[in-house]
Structure of DUF445 family protein:
Amino acid sequence: MWPEWLRDWAAGVNWFHLLTVPVFTGVIGWLINWSGLYMLFYPLRFRGARVPGLRELASILPRKLQEVPGIAQGGLGWQGIIPARAAKMGSIAVDKAIAKLGTPGEFYQQLQPEQIAEHIVEVFRPEVPALVDEIMTREHPRLWRDLPLSVRYAIVVRVQEQLPAIVGQVTTDIGTHIDQLLDPKLMVIEHFRKNPDVVVKIFRDFGQRELNLMVAFGFVFGFLLGVPVAVVDSILQQAWLLPVMGVVVGWVTNLLGMWLIFEPPAPKRILGVKVHGLFPRRQAQAAEVYADIIASDVITLERIGDFLLSGPRGDATRRLLTTALEPAVDRAAGPYRGAVRVVLGPERFDRISRSVAEEAADRTLVPFQDPQFSKQQADRIQRLVARRTKELPPADFVEMMRAAIKEDEWMLYAHGAIMGLAGGFLHLLLFPPGS
């Protein structure tokens, strides 16, 4: 019933050796995907040793080798691929998603500037007496000391009464110029670069189930690929074959694992079977998680205020605030303006107005740093980000999540190939063909 060559082959096969091959490749496939995921995410910071001269040598190495974490900085070691490319992912996330979510002005309007103004007034009002006293004591101590307490008190009350109008003008001016003052791309890139754990959190929080499934499929892929490897090995019976085929199995196992997570972005039928990438099939749920992280960790009122005052455009923000505050402070002097201006002289009076405006500018956005108030505003940003992320085309969503690591995936494939090679040699050592 069986061809003669098949009977001859079956008679000469070491069945124990043959049957252990797919089991062994399955275990190696599981280890490859498990360790590959660890390489993707950890460690968060570079760990290794600095090698003298490596940094200079790196400039003449092939570009792919220069991309290995640490090499370009002169170190031998490792940093998770995603943490190492956190800044790049931030840039792509802005280009592919956040830029499409809305302009800086839209984000600012979502924060309801009227409520921000009310909060600033509430926090700033108690500081007015100390601010006025500090500046007047510094700029014209004798005049301020000689003024009756009732006059000093009247000036402070006048400034406090003017405060809502002053702050309202400030928040309006910020909204008018927010596109020039706020750079979401730079803000996100810097935050991701300084906090790579946030990028890892994005993947982990909504994709842990899929990542665990990828590890499990590592065994399935490895086992299935091991079946033809075992047959070919039993036919050719060459000692070098298992290590060489192990390289192929290791490379393909990681390749299939990455494909399983991301491809295809939209559902399609292959040989009559509906297939859809694990990540993109849960885009709606992912959008909620992603938006929550962006709203609570990345684009927050607290960080917006910090960027406006301390970021690269902080000087422009201060100039805008001072320009808005100076005439308002001048008006706040009310009926005392003429008399004080005569006593001090126009130049000194204007300098005091400018000093008050400059001091107030630094304090005006301090309420942005209130974590509790920032958390209240985060709900509005979360809803905006979630809605717009759900509306992204599947291909854009996948690119946002994958583009930062796509050109570094070869490291995972190479890691799989190396482990496959080592697995092949280990199998020969544990289960020699002739045993």
In short: The first helix runs from residue 4 to 12. The chain is about 75% helix and 5% strand. Residues 130 and 156 are 9 Å apart (CA to CA).
